[in-house]
Amino acid sequence: MAEKKDYLDPELYTNRELSWILFNKRVLSEARDKQIPLFERLKFLSITASNLDEFFMVRVASLKDMVNAKYTKKDIAGLTAAQQLDKLNVVTHELVAQQYSTYNRSLLPLLKANGLTVVEKHEQLSKDQAEYVDAYFDENVYPVLTPMAVDSSRPFPLIRNKSLNIGALLSKRKEKGELEFATVQVPSVLARIVPIPAGDNGGKAVILLEEVIERNISRLFLNYDVVCSHPFRIMRNADLTIDEDEAEDLLKEIEKQLKKRQWGQAIRLEVEAGMDKRLLRIIKDELSIEEEDIYHIDGPLDLTFLMKMYGLEGFEHLKEEKYVPQPVPEFMEEGSVFDKIRQGDILLHHPFQTFAPVVQFIREAARDPEVLAIKQTLYRVSGNSPIIAALAQAAENGKQVSVLVELKARFDEENNIVWARKLEKAGCHVIYGLVGLKTHSKITLVVRREEDGIRRYVHLGTGNYNDATAKLYTDIGMMTCSEAIGEDATAVFNMLSGYSEPLSWNKLSLAPLWLKDKFLYLIGREVKNVRAGETGHIIAKMNSLCDQDIIAALYEASAAGVKIELIVRGICSLKVGIPGVSENISVRSIVGTFLEHSRIFYFENAGKSEVYCGSADWMPRNLERRVEILFPVEDPKLKEKVLHILDVQLRDTVKAHLLQPDGSYEKVDRRGKETFNSQVAFCVEAMEAAKAQETPHDDRVFIPEKHVSEEEE
């Protein structure tokens, strides 16, 4: 048997950034799928654009920082940061070309055929449309614009991260001088999609705001001739660097860094294809952008506007029927949440089942006179969070409320600072996490005084306490009043608020302390069982897999004969089909209407199977640099439900992409197989389970409250 060190050869691994690009291509393949309703395809294309923006601001920015710092250590695939950037440069340009080919060749003609004309260039407007657009500019746009010229007294303006701008070259009338540069930001406070009269063809017509401005740009520079004007957009380094040991007040330090995010180093420039070379040279030089970081775009910059186009009325027949999360059978009758949890552990499967019981759990705890304390971790919450409101109310009602708000949750820092201040104002004890670690675990503890003494109720989950994303992300939650888990939950919060960790744990496993070792032990146990003549089987579902120690252990298990079935939505640095190494491993990625987010782990354990759920992916950051929780699902009925979830996903033939030995992904070959969409199956099951619980003589059905929440992608 080969030694474990053989499994660390860089040839056995895929670079994580290149694997992420393959994930975004899988999302793009949904935008290209003719079987999917047209407006859903718009949405998927929009998601690929917002994904790519974040990838540049964080991952590409981080690699550029490494190169600038002369950091030459290689990743698990044997690539330096500079080599990764070289490879990424090729594949990201290819990806952007595919995005715009999808938009121009496929989606635009289909939109027109279905009654929505997108006027691409203002020169294409009819006489009536042109008059309408000019009047719209005068009344709505002109007063908001701030044109900025550049000359000896006015330096090149600061261009905000991700903002859309129009650059222009001007010449003074009646003078033959040098061309002058000017720019105007396309205001984000105005709708980018402008409805205009449809013309003779009927249907609806729209034009983009930048075209409206470009058509009237001469109005902004009255003493000049506009030689040319073109839109451009920049992406800046948005990776916050916070030295927590030096930061006396983490809240203030993060606020300071957030301001810098708008003005970080420019790392990507998108320009309209065919931009005047003189104009491009000025922008490129002023922003210190390298040639390879310039993207010449054949179409509108920033395709995230397609998410707003999805919201246009009158095209419901071109969208999927909206699914409404179903009531959880255990909560459909009236009665206390605590009574229901005492009857037995309860499993929640979002978004197929509603998130309302979790909100109800915290609301009831806030109002219940017998509840003494509520403790909760918050990583990302919605814009108008009912959970924040309930926690604030609990503190006002005199309960001990401790909330860990993770200030370092990327791109939610600002939001979380607001919530932290609001909770402190209400009287909650707010903890800002441990130095150097993000707290990514999802746990709520409610301490209640009952007739037979103090009882602890716990909610554990794989997803955030966010009622908005709970309608879009697939996650697992469990509610329990198990004494062992209650003790562990208390220990978790004591650890987070500053006490040392306990000597031993009953049921929960935590990162960064013991979780990685736990996973390595569970994988190793399957190897031992196989070598002892038993069968070995691992099924693991997660968002990302790139931890080298875990992958090496999986390779060793595969070589020993353990059957390994992985369901990995995003990054996967493991390779399949390597002779003698990974022949017993299969990897599938499911990209569908809902974002796959739950983390589930199954180990056969010689017939005494163990099932776990948790907040951690198999990534170094989750296992080594974050506070994460893994919890067992032990109740036989709940265990069966979780195994059913894995089984249904392994049967998917519609949304599953299978990893190939050459590193590419292919949709399942459906020949001879049933057409089976796992997410649709879960929707149907949730509706049937709720319907079965309804009784004709019982009108006490629990109706989940509707919560107002901000739109999230």
Descriptive tags:
713 residues, transferase, Endonuclease, Chain A, phosphoprotein, single chain, alpha/beta, 10-stranded mixed β-sheet, 27 strands, 8-stranded mixed β-sheet, 35% helix, Methane Monooxygenase Hydroxylase, Chain G, domain 1, 4 domains, polyphosphate kinase like, PP_kinase_middle
Describe this protein's structure.
This protein has 713 residues and is α/β, with parallel strands linked by helices. The protein has 4 domains: 122 residues, Polyphosphate kinase N-terminal domain (Methane Monooxygenase Hydroxylase, Chain G, domain 1, Up-down Bundle); 175 residues, 2-Layer Sandwich (polyphosphate kinase like); 170 residues, Endonuclease, Chain A (2-Layer Sandwich), CATH 3.30.870.10; 183 residues, Endonuclease Chain A (Endonuclease, Chain A, 2-Layer Sandwich), CATH 3.30.870.10. 35% of the residues lie in helices and 21% in strands. The chain contains 18 helices and 27 strands. Strands 14, 18, 19, 20, 21, 23, 24, 25, 26 and 27 form a 10-stranded mixed sheet that branches. Strands 10, 11, 12, 13, 15, 16, 17 and 22 form an 8-stranded mixed sheet that branches. α1 runs antiparallel to α2 and α14 runs parallel beside α15. The longest helix has 33 residues. It is globular. It starts with 15 loop residues before the first helix and ends in a 20-residue tail after the last helix. 42% of the residues are buried. The C terminus is likely disordered.
